[in-house]
Write a structure and sequence with these properties.
Helix content is about 45%, strand content about 20%. It has helices at about 45-60, 115-120, 125-135, 140-150, 160-175, 250-260, 280-285, 300-315, 320-330, 335-350, 355-370, 375-380, 395-405, 415-425, 430-440, and strands at about 5-10, 20-30, 80-90, 95-105, 190-205, 210-220, 225-230, 230-235, 240-245, 270-275, 295-300. The relative contact order is 0.11.
């Protein structure tokens, strides 16, 4: 006895049980699978089955579009004026949708394209895939990934279309993130917040500019630190924001304030600890938060201090490394004056030009940020924040991996900014909410 699996789609009158239309989507012989490859359906066969089911459902749904014969403009009779074919791009498949066109003698005409009716020819699932894939990978790789999922080369997944999708979604997410967030009630405020501000350079596509800096800030409550093991912690809840816009920091400052408010800052309750690499543009951002917090503590990030010492230490002879270690020890204990004095002497004693230049830059860096140096040893003992080690990966995760993974990759400020809005949304685990808002802005609901 030969046995087959027959998959049939039916359009049925639910009340009477009458089958109004049906189609055999697949029919396959049931055979013993000799290899695992023969068990179930192949990827391409699943796509083909889904495409067949989609065609059948779309066929019967399309009849209901523009079904009314009443003109919404004058309430007169709207007459059919042919059937127009519109292309629909689902998450994995593409389809033709036949839409009735209606017109009235008053001049009214129905919309007869999916974009005109619903706001786009892309299903929201596909647009979301474009946005996420395009923000996490190069546009070429995103194109390749999406086409692999569909097991076909789809024109809708081309590089330019993915770039446009990222731009559209990114612009909406950026606009919503800039809307002012109200201060939380005093009873809901947190006692402490940590803000880590840093920047990353992105290669510009403008002929007159080599690169530009995108600013990143991560805000979190220290109570949301989860111990993973002896040497690792995790921030379980945070809000990260970013801007690549050149507007005298107006955008990033508003984004950081909104992030602080989302995390529970209150002007009469919260102590805000700000950690930066010491750049003036970073302190400029943190200083704008003073009116919104009870106390603000600006701390030169120990992580960045250590990085500078490590670079120099790797170039020194063993006989000189001890002197540098002692200078670092004074900084660790908050004694910037002694550290600067010893560093100044060290510079005079060094004969190697490159080392002297590195030490001079270190001296200028410490002196410039002297008022932001603290007793790091004491803060560590008292379990107070003094390093951005936990949040430092944000620059690498948000900027470097996507926008600097290929040396030939070049960006406009707007293009970089839009990608960063999606990446920070995913990084902050707020994508579900942000995408829901963007979806409502892009797509129309038909009455």
């Amino acid at each position: 006895m030969e046995r087959v699996i027959r998959i049939v789609a039916q359009h049925v009158n639910k009340e009477t049980g009458e089958v109004l239309d049906s189609v055999v989507c697949r029919e396959d012989a049931v055979k013993k699978p000799e290899t695992l490859m023969e068990l179930g359906y192949l990827h391409i066969e699943q796509i083909e089955l889904l495409s067949s089911l989609q065609d059948f459902k779309i066929k019967h749904q399309a009849v209901l579009i523009n079904q009314s014969d009443v003109c919404p403009n004058c309430n007169g009779k709207a007459r059919a004026q042919g059937i127009i074919k519109s292309t629909f791009h689902a998450a994995l498949t593409d389809h033709d949708v036949l839409i009735r066109r209606k017109r009235c003698t008053c001049g009214w005409g129905s919309k007869y394209s999916l974009e005109g009716i619903y706001g786009s020819t892309l299903h929201p699932d596909l647009l979301e895939k474009h946005a996420i894939q395009g923000s996490e990978n190069s546009y070429r790789k995103a194109c390749k990934n999406l086409n692999y999922e569909s097991k076909s080369i789809r024109s809708i997944n081309n590089v330019d279309r993915i770039r446009r999708s990222v731009s559209k979604v990114g612009e909406i997410v950026a606009f919503e993130k800039l809307q002012e967030v109200n201060e939380v009630k005093k009873v809901d405020a947190v006692d402490n917040l940590i803000v880590v501000v840093d920047g990353g350079h992105v290669k510009s596509n403008q002929n007159d500019s080599r690169s530009f800096e995108a600013m990143i800030a991560t805000v979190y409550d220290p109570n949301n630190l989860k111990v993973i093991d002896k040497n690792h912690n995790e921030i379980t809840q945070k809000t990260s924001v970013a801007s690549a816009i050149s507007d005298e920091q107006k955008t990033i400052k508003q984004l950081v304030l909104n992030a602080c408010r989302k995390e529970g800052i209150h002007s009469k309750v919260t102590t805000l600890t700000c950690l930066t690499d010491g750049a003036n543009n970073c302190w400029s951002i943190t200083n704008t938060l003073k009116p919104y917090t009870k106390t603000i503590v600006n701390v030169l990030d120990w992580f960045h201090i250590t990085k500078r010492f490590t670079v120099i230490n790797n170039t020194l002879n063993d006989s000189l490394k001890d002197r540098l270690t002692k200078i670092k020890w004074h900084l660790w204990h908050g004694d910037a004056k002694t550290a600067l004095e010893r560093l100044n002497t060290f510079i005079k004693d060094v004969t190697e030009e490159k080392t002297s230049e590195q030490l001079t830059h270190l001296y200028e860096y410490i002196k410039r940020n002297q008022k932001h140096l603290v007793n790091y040893q004491k803060r560590q003992v008292e379990n107070l924040p003094f390093t951005s080690t936990l949040a430092e990966s944000s620059v690498n995760s948000l900027i470097n991996i996507r926008q600097k993974c290929n040396q030939k990759m070049q960006w406009s400020r707007v293009g970089s900014h839009n990608v960063l809005q999606i990446r920070t949304s995913i990084f902050s685990k707020s994508w579900f909410q942000d995408w829901s808002v963007a979806q409502d802005k892009i797509y129309k609901k038909v009455a």
